[in-house]
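Notebook B, p. 112. Complex prediction, attempt 2.
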Amino acid sequence: MKLSEKELEIVKILEKDARTPLDMLAKMVGLPVAETEALVKKLEEAKVIVQYTALVDWRKVDGHEGVTAMIDVKVTPKRGVGFDEVAERIYRFPEVTSVYLMSGAYDLSVVIEGRSMSEIAQFVSEKLSTLDSVISTTTHFILKKYKHDGIVFDQGDQDRRIVVSP
Amino acid sequence: MKPQTRNTYVSKTVAALKPSGIRRFFDLASGMEGVISLGVGEPDFVTSWSVREASILSLEQGYTSYTPNAGLLELRQEIAAYLRRKFHVDYRPETEILVTVGASQAIDLALRAILDPGDEVIVVEPSFVAYEPLVVLAGGTPVAVQTTGADGFQLHVAQLEQALTARTKAIIICSPNNPTGTVLRPAELEALARLAKEHDLLVIADEIYAELTYDDGYMSMAAVSGMRERTILISGFSKGFAMTGWRLGFAAAPEDILQAMLKIHQYAIMCAPTMAQYGALEALRSGERDVAEMRSSYRRRRNYFVSSLNEIGLPCHMPGGAFYAFPSIRHTGMTSEQFAERLLIEEKVAVVPGSVFGQSGEGHVRCSYASSLEQLQEAVKRIKRFLARL
C-alpha cells in the first residue's frame, strides 16, 4: 500500500503516541478533523495500523511475577512451506510474544513470557522441543529490561533548560 | 568603602548599554513554581548520544590540549563539506573557515573585524537581542530597519535602502529569524544582494537556524550569485544539532575578512573548547538522521501550536523556520510587556515580550514551541483562559 505524505505523517505520529487527540493530530498534519479521522480509519482498516497498545513497566506492579526468555531455535524447513509452517505452530501459543526468522547461526528467534522460569522450561521441553521440525533450542532469560521498542524504561526526562533565554 | 564610587570604573559605553529585557522575565519566572515556559530559546532535545559519546571518547583518549586557533583542521574540512552539501557554497577550510565559541562569538568577531568608529550597521528588526549591543561594543552605530507582522515580517529592500548613509558598512540579517521564525525568500535575498553590490556593503548572515526550515528549500545568503565575496556566513551547532551548551559555532568568509577575525580570536579566545570540537566533528559526520528527526518533530509541534494560537484568538503567521511563534497581542490593548507579565503571574505561562527584540516586535510575544506536546497543550489551555478573562 502506498501512503500519501499526510498518511505517512499520521502513522509516524501515532506510532510515537497512539493517544494523540484527533484534533491535535489534525492540526499537526494540517488537515480538517473529519478528513484526518477518515484517514486514520482507512489506515486501521488496511491494517497498516494494526493495534493500539500500552507499554507497561510490570516491575512497578507489586506482586507481579513474570519472566521473559529469548529462545534460539534451529529447525528443518519443509519443502513447499519453508519455515512458515513451523513458525506458525510456534506463534500460535499465546505465551509466545514474538517470532522472527533470523539470518545466521539459528533459524527462529522466539520470545516467550511466563510466570516463572520453570513454566518456561516446561514450555521449551514439552511443547517447543517436541515439534518435529525443531532440531535444537537455546534459551536465554532476560534479567533486566533497559530499553524496549525504542523506549527507555527509567527515562530521566526533566527539563534542564533555564526558564527564559534569548 | 563607598560602593557608589565603584560604578566609575565601568566604561561609559558599557554603562550606557541597556540590560537585556529578557533578564527581567528570567528573574520573574525563575522564582515561580509550576511555570510552563515558552520563553526558552533552545531545543528541548538533549544532544544526540553519538555526539556526546564522541566527546567523551576524546576526553578518555586525552585530547585535552589546545587546537589550532581556527579550530581542528578536520572539523573545518567537515564544515566546508557540510556547507557545500547543504547550502551549495564553497569555502577553503584552511583559510576561510573559523570555529568559534558559539555563533554569538562569530558575530562579535565579524563586527570587530570590519568596523571603524562611527561605521553604521543596519540591523533588521525584530532581531536577536545581541546584535545592537555588539555593534556598539565594536565601536559602530546600529541603525534599525523595521519589518512588520502585517506581511509576516518579510524584508523590504526598498525600505532598507532608505536607511543607508555614506557610513553604512554592513547589514545583519537572521534567517530563519529569531524571534519571528520568518525565512527570507530567494527573491528578497536577490534584491538584498543587488543593494549590497550597488552600495558596496557586507552582509553578516546569521544562519544559525538554517537546519530548521519546514516548508520550502533553504537558500543561504552566500549562495546568491556574487554574494560570496561580501558575505560573512555565520552558523553553528546549537540549534539544528541541539548543542547549545557546547558553545560551538563557526564563520565562513572571504580570506581577508576571515583572517582579520582570526587575528582577534587568537588573542581573545585562543581556540574553541577541544572536547566540544570533537563532538561537533561527530555531529557533522553522523548527525544528519538525528537532525531530520528533530526537524519533523518541530514541524509537527509548529503546525499544532500555531493553528491553536490562531484558533484561540492570537493571530499568528505560520513561521517557516526556527522554533518560535510570534503572535500578535495588539487587540488586547496591552503592551507586549504587560501581556507577558500578566500571563506569567495569572496563568504561569512564560513568553517573551516582543519589545525586547526591537521596536517592531511591540504588539507581539515570542513563544517557543520547543516543548513537549503535553506542555504546549496545557499552555494553549491557559492562554485561552487568560484571553477569555480580559
